[in-house]
Design goal:
Elements: E1 10-13, E2 18-22, E3 36-37, H1 44-47, E4 59-61, E5 73-78, E6 84-85, E7 94-98, H2 106-121, E8 126-129, H3 135-138, E9 141-144, H4 169-178, E10 183-188, H5 190-205, E11 211-216, H6 232-251, E12 256-262, H7 269-278, E13 283-285, H8 299-310, E14 312-318, H9 323-329, H10 348-363, E15 369-373, H11 386-404, E16 410-415, E17 418-423, H12 424-428, E18 430-432, H13 439-448, H14 456-465, E19 479-481
Parallel strand pairs: 2-5, 7-8, 7-10, 10-11, 11-16, 12-14, 12-15, 13-14
Antiparallel strand pairs: 1-2, 3-6, 4-5, 5-17, 8-9, 16-17, 18-19
Helix pairs in contact: 2-11, 4-5, 6-7
Bound molecules: adenosine-5'-triphosphate, 6-O-phosphono-beta-D-fructofuranose and magnesium ion.
Magnesium ion binds at residues 100, 189-191, 484.
Catalytic activity: beta-D-fructose 6-phosphate + ATP = beta-D-fructose 1,6-bisphosphate + ADP + H(+)
Subunit structure: Homotetramer.
Function: Catalyzes the phosphorylation of D-fructose 6-phosphate to fructose 1,6-bisphosphate by ATP, the first committing step of glycolysis.
Amino acid sequence: MGTESNYQMKVVKGDHGYVLEDVPHLTDYIPDLPTHDNPLRSNPAYSVVKQYFVDMDDTVPQKVVVHKDSPRGVHFRRAGPRQKVYFNSDDVRACIVTCGGLCPGLNTVIREIVHSLDYMYGVSKVFGIDGGYRGFYSKNIINLTPKTVNDIHKRGGTILGSSRGGHDTTKIVDSIQDRGINQVYIIGGDGTQKGAAVIYEEIRRRDLKVIVAGIPKTIDNDIPVIDKSFGFDTAVEEAQRAINAAHVEAESAENGIGVVKLMGRYSGFIAMYATLASRDVDLCLIPESPFYLEGDGGLFEYIEKRLKENGHMVIVIAEGAGQELLAEENAHAKNEQDASGNKLLQDVGLWISQKIRDHFAKKTKMPITLKYIDPTYMIRAVPSNASDNVYCTLLAQSCVHGAMAGYTGFTSGLVNGRQTYIPFNRITEKQNMVVITDRMWARLLSSTNQPSFLRVKDIEEIKKEEQPQTQLLDGDNNVHENSGH
Ligand SMILES: Nc1ncnc2c1ncn2[C@@H]1O[C@H](COP(=O)(O)OP(=O)(O)OP(=O)(O)O)[C@@H](O)[C@H]1O
Ligand SMILES: O=P(O)(O)OC[C@H]1O[C@](O)(CO)[C@@H](O)[C@@H]1O
Ligand SMILES: [Mg+2]
C-alpha cells in the first residue's frame, strides 16, 4: 500500500518535563462549532455517578515507573464522557468498518459501539461497511441496530467482513461525504490505522465535520503504546489447547516431539505468553530471537539433550521465526506479498518439523515420533473470552465518548490500565516487539530452560541496536521501527 501520512502532532508542554501528545479536535479546523449538553447528564444510570465526566485536563502518563528526578514525560488524553458534546444525537450518522486479519472480539467491539451510541447518546443511525475499506466504495451499507447486533459477541470473526488492500482514500472519503456520514469508527491493525490516518487528513483537508476514530486490533500484539490488544488473551488461551494436544502426543510416544506453530508475523508475543502460560513447552522460537540448527548450542543439540532427559518435548514456534534460515535455503522463493503489501511468510512449522526428522534419521540413532500441529486460524477465529469482552466494551465506549466530544484522528487505547485517546501516528510509527534482552524473555528462558542461541557478542550488538526503553516496567512498550509495509 504505502500511502504516506502527513499527520501533524499536537504537542502541549508543561512543567517538570510534562508533555501531552494530544489528539486533534474538530474545532482545530472548524471554528465556532455549537456544543450541546451531554445526554448522559440526564441518564439516570450515569447522573448519580460522581465525577462521571472526565475533567478536560485529565491525562494519563505513558511511563508509570519513574525515578526521583526524571521528567514527567509523555502523557495521553484520558478517555471518557465530556460535559459538552459536538453533535446533536439526531444528526449523527455513524459507520463502522473492520479491516485486516480476524481477531477475537471484533464482533464485541461492533456491538458495543452500536449499543453505546444508541443507549448513551440516542444515536440510531449506525451503518456497517461491508468487507473492509473497499466496502466504502464497492458495496451497500448495512443497517446496525442494538437488536441486530445483540448477540454477535458470541460469534467469532466479524459480521461486517474484513479484507486486505483496496484502500483508496479519495473514493473512501467521497463515499463518506456522499452518504452523509459524520462519525467513522475504524477497527483494525497497524495497516488499518495508517489508512485511518490518511482518511482523517483528507477529511480535514476538505473541512468536513466528520470524526475518524480508530480501535486498535491485532492478534499479534504488535501495536505500540497500548498495554495489549483485545483478543490477545483469548488467542493465548486458545493456543493452550494445541499445546496440550502436542504435549499429550509427545508424552505418549518414545522420544515424542510435539511442534506447534502459532501466529506472530514480526512479534512473538502469542508464542511467548502461550509458552509461559502452559509450562509444558521446552522450546519457544520467535521472530525476534534468531536461532541456528547445527553445532554447539544449536537447536538439534538441545533437542537431543532434552529427549535424553525427559523422553519427550514440546516446541512452540511463531510463524515469523527462522524466516531468514528458510530464505537462505530457498534463495529462489518468490518474494510474495498480500493485498495490503505484507510479506507472505514461508511455513516455518513444516520446515522445522522436516529438519528435525531428517536430523534424527540421518545423524543419530534415536528414533523419534514428531507430530506437527498448526492451529494458526483456530486461535483467532474463536469468540473473545470474558476478560476480552470487558476490554472490548471499554474500548468501544471510550471511542464513542471521544467522537461525541468532537475528538478526531485518534485511536482509543488502554495505557497503564487507563483508557486514553492516542494520536494515530504514535500507533503507526513503530511496531511492538518482544525485546530479547528484556526481563520478560529472560523469564521465558528460565521457565523452558532453552538456550538463548546468543553469544555475548550478539547480546552486545542487540543492546546497541535497541532504542532506549520507553518504560522501565518489564516487557512494556518495547517498540521497534515499523517493519510492516
Ligand atoms: N500505509 C497505508 N495507507 C493506507 N492504507 C493502508 C496502509 N497500509 C495498509 N492499509 C490498508 O489497511 C487495511 C488493513 O491493512 P493490513 O492488511 O495490513 O492489516 P492490519 O490492519 O495491519 O491488521 P493485521 O496485520 O493485524 O491483520 C487494508 O485495507 C490496507 O489496504
Ligand atoms: O492469512 P491472513 O488472513 O492474511 O492472516 C495471516 C496474518 O494475520 C495475522 O494474524 C495478523 O492479523 C498474522 O499473524 C498472520 O500472519
Ligand atoms: Mg498489520
